[in-house]
Amino acid sequence: xxxxxxxxxxxxxxxxxxxxxxxxxxxxxxxxxxxxxxxxxxxxxxxxxxxxxxxxxxxxxxxxxxxxxxxxxxxxxxxxxxxxxxxxxxxxxxxxxxxxxxxxxxxxxxxxxxxxxxxxxxxxxxxxxxxxxxxxxxxxxxxxxxxxxxxxxxxxxxxxxxxxxxxxxxxxxxxxxxxxxxxxxxxxxxxxxxxxxxxxxxxxxxxxxxxxxxxxxxxxxxxxxxxxxxxxxxxxxxxxxxxxxxxxxxxxxxxxxxxxxxxxxxxxxxxxxxxxxxxxxxxxxxxxxxxxxxxxxxxxxxxxxxxxxxxxxxxxxxxxxxxxxxxxxxxxxxxxxxxxxxxxxxxxxxxxxxxxxxxxxxxxxxxxxxxxxxxxxxxxxxxxxxxxxxxxxxxxxxxxxxxxxxxxxxxxxxxxxxxxxxxxxxxxxxxxxxxxxxxxxxxxxxxxxxxxxxxxxxxxxxxxxxxxxxxxxxxxxxxxxxxxxx
Length: 486
Prior knowledge:
It contains 16 helices and 25 strands. The chain is globular. The strands form seven sheets. Strands 1, 2, 3, 8, 9, 11 and 12 form a seven-stranded antiparallel β-sheet that branches. A five-stranded mixed β-sheet has the order 5-4-6-7-10, with no helix packed on it. Strands 16-19-22-15-23 form a five-stranded parallel β-sheet.
């Protein structure tokens, strides 16, 4: 099952529950979930829903809303998973039957009969494959790029924007994950509703639950008034869970429950509140590795990853650098002032840089260059010092194009980066050096090395993969003769 979870940006590019690539480009499958009540008080009611989730119950926020009093508010749901249809009971009072057999979770086939309480429902699904065409435009929302990787991304974003599919956006820090999320929202049917951002990596561990789900007055020390959480604030619109890989493991079941039941319960509240939100999540983490090490729930991954889109790093689409830089310059030019431009030498210099901070680092560089420019044409001097190649950011999905300048050379300071990202580069360098030493100290015994480092063996293996350290190479390096040996 884990093989279906992206292990790298390349693997993840167009994977997800509803997306496949047949070698000729991405395809999106459109599912229509059809239900007809064939027995019970609501006999004759029909529902046809285009999507990948359908909830059955008496709650008004459900998709098939029944009046049968033997049916629970959130009785059961139908999910599309890996092109199959999964029926799940949601802890109902009277249980769910499939073709007469009680089930907690079971796969459906067309023509299956689902019984909830005294009601029987006929299941009739259809699906249609649609190829995603590359758009002619070199922008989508506030994202720019004429390269093929970005046109593919724009095509996918445009195709799924009008749906309510949950989307997981993967990419290195600075690649524009929030811009992609905002573009999805602004091009969709919820554009006139709220877009609420939750930075899972910046919240205090003790306040994360309150930030997400809200709290009642007196729920904890300092809660002097009722406060709705991000889900309630986003009701009818979109919630963007930035850096969802940083969400504490103990809160992941509560997030999963909110997504499954479409309701949240404020801290200190006695009753839940129904919410209708589209969920977009983003991460620079390798969630597949985190699932292996039990740091991220697999069922939550599948809830978030109905579509997975990976944003390529800037170094893999260098033909876009001049386009992005020039558009940035136009936005920075004051009204009535001569338009700033880049000299040919400056463009060549920009295309040759490693851009560890991606588009965000490029933006900082251009802003500084515009401020320092002595004329309307920006030269290489205005761009500032060039950064040598450095490590991938700690925890980042590894990319062979980003490596140290020399096996153990530390990254150089780069004031164009925010302090958080600059710190991450140094942490990554320290982490890589530590891993090499501890593996060699214990002669490749991963169990002993993990115990010494105070981490689970799977976590150690994940770190080795992130830093592209191979056990055999480290042991061979340790055994290699020194300069004075013969």
